Amino acid sequence: MAITTFFSSVAASGRELTLSDIINAEQTRNTAISLLSVLALVGIWQVGAWSLPSSVLPAPTTVVQALAANLAKPDIWIDIGITLSRIAAAFLISMCVALVLGFSMALSKTAGVFFHVWIVCGITVPALVTILTLYMIIGLNDTAAVIGAAAPVIPVLAINIREGVKGIDPRLLGMAQAFRAKRRQQFASVMVPQIAPMLLASTRFGIGLIWKMVLFVELLGRGSGVGYRIEFFYQMFNMTEVLAYALSFVFVMLFIEVAILGTIERRIFRWKKQ
Amino acid sequence: MNYHIREPKVPTMSQISLTDIHKQFPGRGKKGGWKALDGVSLEIAAGEIVGLLGPSGCGKSTLLNIVAGLDTTFEGKFSIQGKSLTEQIGAGFRIAYVFQEARLMPWRTLRQNIEFVLEAADFARTEWPGRIDKVLSLVELSKFADFYPLQLSGGMQQRASIARAFAIEPDILLMDEPFSALDELTARRLRESLLHIWSAFRSTILFVSHNAFESTYLGDRVYIMSPGPGGRIKEQINLTHIPRPRSYEDSALFEQSKRVVESLRRHMGELVE
Ligand SMILES: Nc1ncnc2c1ncn2[C@@H]1O[C@H](COP(=O)(O)OP(=O)(O)O)[C@@H](O)[C@H]1O
Ligand SMILES: [Mg+2]
Question: Where are the transmembrane segments (chain A) (predicted)?
Answer without folding.
Answer: 32-52, 76-101, 113-138, 144-161, 187-211, 242-264
